[in-house]
Design goal:
By secondary structure, the protein is of the alpha/beta class. It has a domain at 4-97 and 164-228: Rossmann fold, CATH 3.40.50. The chain has helices at residues 48-55, 78-88, 104-109, 123-133, 149-161, 179-194, 206-209; strands spanning 4-17, 20-33, 37-41, 63-68, 71-72, 89-93, 167-171, 198-202, 214-219, 222-228. The structure holds adenosine-5'-diphosphate and magnesium ion (MG).
Length: 243
Amino acid sequence: MDQSLIKVVHLCKDYDNDGVITKVLHEIDLDIKKGEFVAITGPSGSGKSTLMHILGFLERPTCGQYFFDGKDASALSDDELAVIRNEKVGFIFQSFNLLPKTSVYDNVRLPLLYDEKKRIKNQNEAIVDAIKAVGLYHRLNNLSNQLSGGEKQRVAIARALVTAPEVIFADEPTGNLDSKSGKLIMEILQELNEKGKTIILVTHEKYTAEHARRIIKVMDGTVSEDSIVKERLFAKNSEDLIK
Ligand SMILES: Nc1ncnc2c1ncn2[C@@H]1O[C@H](COP(=O)(O)OP(=O)(O)O)[C@@H](O)[C@H]1O
Ligand SMILES: [Mg+2]
């Protein structure tokens, strides 16, 4: 439990659009251990998604250091980063990003098409297990457009799980959902964390963040608070609304 999975030191990110520099993140220091459930929270525009994109190897930092599982990510080539992204991290986005008019099974299978090393031995079993983990086995052959928003997000979770990643990043995963569907998504994320999965949830909603074990608050591109959740909320059995 006390092994660092994600460690960043004095990380910063600037965007350069035709010479116009926007400084988005400044001097971020973080240490996230394996098995944690962290919510990154803060107001819109504070830099949460940018931070998540860097931690998930979708973007590189402008300065500072990033160690993933003890390895210095800045020393890795773009190809090596692509491999880490495919093998070690899973993403869930607010807008689901499923392939349209494609079955649940094929949507969940998608990341395995890039598993060139055949790291996952029995692909069919991995796909079915991931779909079962989100309670959608009865929807296996349904097309993505035949699903509700909540079901679509559960497919996205299964797709993130199928490669057995070290960490799951979820950016506002309940943002497009009604409260009941959102609650189920939080319940699944909490269950996965109970089984040992490291989860990093980005949300601007305080209520949603309180389902995590630790909250990192980002304000104007810096970490303004980093605290353990004292009265943690549990989605299972809760009659509360998520919004
Ligand atoms: N590609 C980009 N070029 C310039 N500015 C950007 C770019 N992406 C994000 N930003 C800016 O960075 C800031 C933080 O954005 P973001 O990380 O999406 O915040 P959050 O997820 O907290 O709402 C915003 O001011 C946004 O406009
Ligand atoms: Mg965002």
